Each structure stands twice: as structure tokens, then as C-alpha cells.
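Please go through this protein, sequence plus C-alpha cells, and consider how the sequence yields the C-alpha cells. Keep your notes short.
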Amino acid sequence: MVLLESQIRLKTGDIAPDFELLGIDDKKHSLSDCQGKKGFLIIFMCNHCPYVKAKVDALNELYEKFGNEIAIIGINSNDSTDYPEDSFDAMKQTAKEKGFRFDYLVDETQEVAKKYGAMCTPDPFLFNSQKELVFHGRIDNAMKPGDSATEKTMIRNIEKLLSGEKIEKGFEPSIGCSIKWKEN
């Protein structure tokens, strides 16, 4: 396990790169699916990372609180050749076991992760309805598995997005396992 902080590639105000990825519902998904929503949250994640596992309840809470107003999309970009626990079938099983109701997509080519500059799991990106990045960073301040959150950063920022308030900090790094890149 390589521990990384998320890095800045997309900057506040940048437009979300579009994609078309297969979801665990066996359908193709793209950003056009987010039309009519007040924004969307893309979380680069996987099944095996202890940092993602520690955020399962927080991810489900985000969906429960905001799933009617913003689209929530999990994207797994890990190379499942060396990490079979991150395979498409394992994604379906994990989503079922963990009660994920948000879209969970596979980025087999890893091109989407590269376009976004995703580095770690979890690595969340929050966009407004015009597809502009408004926040990139942590879900909460529980930075290690086993820590308890005392500040729910993403909930606070989504509330600000929905109420039209400015998000002061456009970047607060997330910490997690490195994305498992394919060898060239």
C-alpha cells in the first residue's frame, strides 16, 4: 500500500472532463446523466483500500442527504489484473454488501482518472451544475482508518453549493492508497 495525498490537476472553475463508463448496473454512464441536478460529486475509489472502507458510512450518508439534489458517482480506476478484489464483479458484490445506491463505474483504461488527476482512493471532486469544479478534497477530517470525524467537510461544502454560498477552500487534500496503475 502506497499512501498518497491527492494533488491539484483540475483547478477551481475548471470544467469536468466528460466520460462514458460502464456501471455496475451494466449500463453506460456519462456526465449528461447529471443534467437536471444541482451538481455532482465524483469519487475515485475502489473496493480493497482501507481508506475507502473507512468512508463507506460517510459515502452512504452523502447519498442519503443529497442523492436527490446532486449526482454521486464512484469511479474505480484500479488495475484489477494485480488487484482482483477491484474487478468489475467484485465492484458489484461490494456495492451490494455496503448498500451503495450511487452509481459505481469502472474506468478500465484509467484515462478518466488521468484526466481528472486522481491520485488516491478516495479522491473526491465536487462540481456545480455548470460542470465547474468547486471543491476537490477530503470527505471529512478523519484522515486515517479508525479516526472519528469531527468535521464533515464534504457535507458542509455540498450544503454551501446547494445554498449558493462560496466554498472558501477549493482544495483540501484527501489521503488514501495510490491508484493502482497499469504497467505500460
The CA atoms of residues 62 and 155 lie 7 Å apart.
